[in-house]
């Protein structure tokens, strides 16, 4: 049996290859043991799923295993975005959630995310504990399928990994319930408090929403309609094949939205990935706005318009324009490895007003510590409405206020496992005095290797945790230097 491992964000696998009902049962049992070991069964678990092939059936399997372990299940009545599943954890004060989704992966994938009781992505010490449970279960040959009564008895037997149950329940074993939920009304109400819906309504905007056939359909489009925007829907229907592509809202995959904006002179295009935790933004004129361009605009907006003045947290790969804004307003910046789990942690512990990452994830103070593409889209609409200009024009204004424009780019390079090992070794020992003719001012080894050059330009190379490749990120105020900086670094680390 192949080992099941949690990557940057959960366990993902190809359906019917390693993502099988049997393995889903094993991972569910590992999560059930994790919850029972911490005496949290009485709080119950939320089970959500996206609209991929078989996601609802996998969710049923997860629910069965939880119930067999005496854990109450709040099972979603239909597909949910990941941030809504996370939000439901708060609504029900649950012990956590399982979300069945492979996010933006190709259609043949599915995945399993565990969201602990703080309603954000599981931190490494939590996924490690679950992986250890998985390994133990795999060593004894998987999970026995029990009937409910037998399972409850087993769960309450002293010495079983699922025991002991909380004292109140220990004397009287209960049959765990399965409750069907619809977290949409509470989630809508919450977002309507975080976003200036009135301003969006007053602007009388035409907005295109592209759900990329993912589980965000019926969320961002509906909320914008509630705000009285004129909404045009694109790919807001279920298609487990995602129209033949990946549900990833990058510039290339949003050509349809760009065309619509150009032809119809729309003000804004808002896209979501397969489980609506990531965002993609198309500005007036059909121009794709990268997350590295959008996040500083949002931080400026939060501080100057919404009165949310406070620190910011970003990953190593995210624009330092955020640092300039923080510095000007006397605020701290918390840098993390790539992965929203670290951003979520800073949102909880450092009182940050914004947490964001280059790959298209963000959340703000007052919301859950999970990335939310629906919230991001609404905030983008609010910004266009309040400032009365395109995001590109707002970016010019922000750049003028905070020391000039920055240009960032990412290149993904495929490697063989052998080459990957060699590059990783190189990264550990590499300490260059200069790069692309400029002295190296700082070496950051939080995730891969980042070199910050005198004057503020930076380059980062790191192995992806979700794909078999290295990512190389560069940011500079002089776009013509991107190529040289990247080439020099690639040469140094042997990625040519
Ligand atoms: O660059 P990678 O390691 O492939 O990770 C890219 C992204 O993967 C997932 O979507 C995580 O939720 C993100 O937090 C992360 O930024």
From TrEMBL:
Cofactor(s) annotated in UniProt: Mg(2+)
EC number: 5.4.2.2
Catalytic activity: alpha-D-glucose 1-phosphate = alpha-D-glucose 6-phosphate
Broadest EC class assigned to this enzyme: isomerase
Domain Alpha-D-phosphohexomutase alpha/beta/alpha: 4-136, 186-285, 291-402
GO molecular function: magnesium ion binding; phosphoglucomutase activity; phosphopentomutase activity
Pathways per UniProt: Lipid metabolism; Glycolipid metabolism; diglucosyl-diacylglycerol biosynthesis
Family: Belongs to the phosphohexose mutase family.
Protein name: Phosphoglucomutase
Organism name: Desulfoscipio geothermicus DSM 3669
């Amino acid at each position: 049996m192949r080992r099941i491992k949690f990557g940057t964000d959960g366990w993902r696998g190809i359906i019917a290859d390693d993502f099988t009902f049997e393995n889903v049962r094993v991972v569910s049992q590992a999560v059930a043991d994790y919850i029972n070991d911490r005496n949290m069964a009485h709080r119950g678990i939320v089970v959500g799923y996206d609209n991929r092939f078989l996601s609802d059936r996998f969710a049923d399997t997860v629910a069965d295993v939880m119930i067999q372990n005496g854990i109450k299940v709040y099972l979603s009545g239909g597909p949910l975005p990941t941030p809504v599943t996370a939000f439901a954890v708060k609504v029900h004060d649950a012990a956590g959630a399982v979300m069945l989704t492979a996010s933006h992966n190709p259609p043949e994938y599915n995945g399993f995310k565990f969201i602990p009781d703080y309603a954000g992505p599981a931190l490494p010490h939590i996924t490690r504990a679950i992986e250890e449970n998985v390994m133990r279960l795999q060593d004894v040959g998987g999970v026995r399928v029990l009937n409910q009564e037998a399972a409850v008895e087993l769960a309450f037997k002293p010495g079983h990994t699922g025991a002991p149950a909380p004292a109140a329940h220990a004397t009287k074993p209960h049959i765990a319930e399965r409750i069907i939920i619809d977290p949409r009304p509470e989630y809508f109400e919450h977002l309507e408090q975080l976003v200036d819906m009135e301003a969006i309504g007053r602007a009388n905007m035409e907005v295109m929403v592209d759900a990329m056939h993912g589980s965000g359909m019926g969320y961002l489009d509906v909320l914008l309609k509630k705000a009285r925007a004129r909404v045009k829907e694109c790919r807001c229907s279920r298609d487990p094949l995602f129209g033949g592509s990946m549900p990833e809202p990058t510039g290339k995959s949003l050509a349809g939205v760009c065309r619509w904006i150009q032809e119809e002179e729309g003000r804004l295009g808002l896209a979501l990935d397969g489980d609506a935790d990531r965002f993609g933004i198309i500005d007036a004129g059909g121009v794709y706005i990268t997350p590295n361009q959008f996040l500083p605009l949002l931080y400026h907006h939060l501080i100057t318009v919404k009165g949310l003045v406070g620190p910011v947290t970003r990953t190593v790969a995210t624009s330092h324009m955020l640092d300039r804004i923080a510095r000007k307003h006397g605020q701290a910046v918390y840098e993390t490895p790539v992965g929203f789990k670290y951003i979520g942690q800073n949102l909880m512990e450092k009182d940050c007003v914004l947490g964001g990452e280059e790959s298209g994830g963000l959340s703000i103070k007052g919301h859950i510590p999970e990335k939310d593409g629906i919230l991001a889209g609404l905030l983008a609409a609010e910004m266009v409405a309040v400032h009365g200009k395109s995001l590109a024009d707002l970016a010019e204004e922000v750049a003028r206020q905070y020391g000039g424009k920055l240009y960032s780019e990412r290149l993904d390079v495929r490697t063989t496992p052998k080459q990957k090992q060699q590059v990783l070794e190189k990264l550990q020992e590499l300490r260059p005095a200069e790069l692309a003719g400029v002295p190296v001012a700082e070496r950051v080894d939080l995730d891969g290797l980042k070199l910050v050059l005198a004057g503020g330009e930076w380059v980062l190379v790191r192995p992806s945790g979700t794909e078999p490749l290295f990512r190389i990120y560069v940011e500079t105020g002089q776009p013509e230097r991107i190529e040289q900086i990247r080439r020099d670094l690639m040469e140094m680390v042997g990625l040519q």
